[in-house]
Design a protein that fits this description.
The chain has about 220 residues and is an alpha+beta fold. The chain has six helices and ten strands; from the N terminus they run ααββββαββαααββββ.
C-alpha cells in the first residue's frame, strides 16, 4: 500500500506540474468567420501546419458499439471537402462493424501549438470501392501493406505472426503498387455540427459552433467555454 501511495503521489505531482498552452495563442474573431465551416477548417489546418504542429492531420473518431457504448481511436484525415471529412479503415474492423450498425460518428482535432480544437459530428457513409481504391493508392507503400494485411482488431496469437505477415505484405505492395485490399474502404463524415474552439490564456475561450440539421444554410452560434 505504501508503494502504491508513493506512485500515486508521484503521478499527481507530475500531473499538476503540467501547463496548458505555454505559448502565445492566436486571436480568433468569430464575427469574421466564413458562412460555412469548411473554409475555416482548411484555414486553421494550414495555420497548424505553419505553426509546426506535430501530425496535424491526426484526429480522434468516436463511434458506439452494438450496446450503445462509446469507443474512440486516433486515425488520419484523408480529405476534407464539400461532402465531408474523409478517413479510411477496414469494413471488418471494430469501427467498421460499429459504423455499419450505427452510421454516425464524431471527430476531434486538437492542435495544442495554437490552443485549438475542431469537433465534427454527423452521419457516416461508405464511399465507392473505386474511390476507396484510388485513395489507398494515393498513400504510401506502408499504407498499402497495412491494408493488405488486414484483419484489424482481431486477436493476435503471436507478434511474430504479424511480423511475417507484414514482411510478405511489404513485398507485395512494392511489387504490385496497384494491388487491391477489398475490405479497406473510404468513409466520410457528413457534418451536421462543426465547432471551432480557440483557447485563451485567461480561460475566456472562444467557441463557435456551426449547425445544419438538413440541407439548408449553416447557422452559427457562440458557446460558453
Amino acid at each position: 500500500m505504501g508503494r502504491m501511495n508513493e506512485d500515486r503521489s508521484d503521478f499527481l505531482r507530475r500531473l499538476h506540474a503540467q501547463r496548458v498552452w505555454d505559448v502565445e495563442l492566436p486571436a480568433f474573431d468569430p464575427g469574421a468567420a466564413p458562412a460555412e465551416p469548411l473554409a475555416l477548417f482548411r484555414s486553421w489546418f494550414a495555420e497548424a501546419v505553419d505553426a509546426g504542429q506535430t501530425e496535424p492531420h491526426t484526429m480522434t473518431l468516436a463511434t458506439v458499439d452494438a450496446y450503445g457504448h462509446p469507443d474512440v481511436r486516433t486515425l488520419m484525415l484523408h480529405d476534407a471537402d464539400e461532402v465531408g471529412w474523409h478517413f479510411g479503415t477496414h469494413v471488418t474492423s471494430a469501427k467498421g462493424h460499429q459504423l455499419a450498425a450505427h452510421p454516425h460518428g464524431a471527430l476531434n482535432f486538437y492542435w495544442p501549438a495554437q490552443g485549438r480544437q475542431v469537433r465534427v459530428r454527423g452521419p457516416v457513409t461508405l464511399r465507392s470501392a473505386a474511390e476507396s481504391l484510388a485513395d489507398l493508392h494515393a498513400h504510401s507503400t506502408g499504407a498499402l501493406a497495412s491494408a493488405l494485411v488486414g484483419r484489424q482488431s482481431e486477436v493476435l496469437d503471436s507478434y511474430d505472426d504479424l511480423v511475417r505477415e507484414f514482411e510478405a505484405a511489404w513485398e507485395r505492395a512494392r511489387a504490385e503498387p496497384e494491388a487491391d485490399a477489398p475490405s479497406w474502404r473510404l468513409y466520410v463524415v457528413t457534418p451536421r455540427e462543426v465547432e471551432f474552439f480557440q483557447g485563451e490564456a485567461r480561460r475566456r475561450h472562444v467557441r463557435l459552433r456551426y449547425r445544419r440539421p438538413g440541407d439548408g444554410p449553416w447557422t452559427r452560434e457562440l458557446l460558453r467555454p
